[in-house]
Amino acid sequence: MIFTGKYFGTDGFRGEAGVSITAEQAYRVGEMLGYIYGRKKGKCRAVIGKDTRRSSYMLEYALAAGLTATGADAYILHVTTTPSVSFITRCDGFDCGIMISASHNPYCDNGIKLMNDRGEKMEDEVLSVIEDYLDGKTAPLPLASGANIGRTVDYISGRNRYIGHLISLSTCSYKGLRVGLDAANGSAWQIARSVFESLGAKTFVIGDSPNGVNVNDGVGSTHIEKLVELVKNDKLDIGFAFDGDADRCICVDERGEVLSGDEELYICANWLKSRGELNGDKIVCTVMSNGGLIAGLGRAGISCDVCAVGDRNVCEAMAKTGAVLGGERSGHIVFSKYETTGDGLVTAIMIMEALVERKCRLSELIKDFKSFPQVNLNVPVTDKAAVMPRLIEEADKLGASLAVRIVVRPSGTERLMRIMAEGESYENCVAACGRLRAVIEDTEV
Question: For 302, which of 185, 297, 394, 401 could close a Cys bridge (C-beta 3.0–4.6 Å)?
């Protein structure tokens, strides 16, 4: 069960910067982390990364101030990706990791993602203690003084080590391949180019001019059109688009066709199986994955364990089943051999490895993948909890009458209800989503 409190939802503490997530709150989060881990370890060592949003600086300095005020040392990675913070936290022995990002949300939003010493999502009990402190339910914390006050450390070397880690994952040269990269004006704007050029590819990069207010603005994994245009116009072999913090990757083949996380899982599962590296010949996917993924992998002798939406659910299911590969349709893919979280750059490298080893075009790797008709709809909502009962009741009726599979769920990061309908008839999927939209609008009146 994912912790969903007043502040911390499915993917950290997220909201409009300066309004629903403030510097004062960030300071208090830092204070409590420094206090909790200081009591456990004698002195807390925390590592902090951020994306390119203007408000990330405000939250970074506030977190560092809170940490050092309670005696912790804060190591600053500066602009980097969420998976890099996870990697450095785990490999360099930090007590906790902090990433400042609102992922694929617009620039006006921001967030605080907390990780434990294994680079995984922070334990629920720690989040609960932090929430109580934010709400003033616990006494003010004792502050450090004198030589016990913490310090901040410039830790750019950690980010460079992560880049080296990415480069080391490849066993092939990408020389001669023309690769498009869309960094979403976010965390990967320097890292992506460095990695792919180091591996020999000729890169064509967009979304690499962050100015603090243009992250995800018409570019990145949620705005794939610019990358499609780049791949077609420059006759590229492949393209990869990342989101604001680069834990997701969406791919474009040489024809300009978009590959979701489902197609990426299909390619990587078949490739790992061919190498004898797909433990148990199984993967983990979520209820939002297209039925075509399950059917297509089934024909290849690969089974799918289906879990609820969310990277934490995917990771927990992978640990439980022993699967080494899992992910979501959004392009959030986890390779447990290399990371404890999803990493868009690792996903891109693994797809490149499959492409180079098979000596073919990307479209050939998915020629046997057949998607079922699927319609996805995001409906703005004021009170997600209020609409759920009627929405679920109506979804059950429509699923039976229209012969479609329906998933309805509240967004964990935005005021949206997410609706998915999948079946043999595209028209029935559209009809189901339209009816459910009407249910939400009627309930909200």
Answer: 297
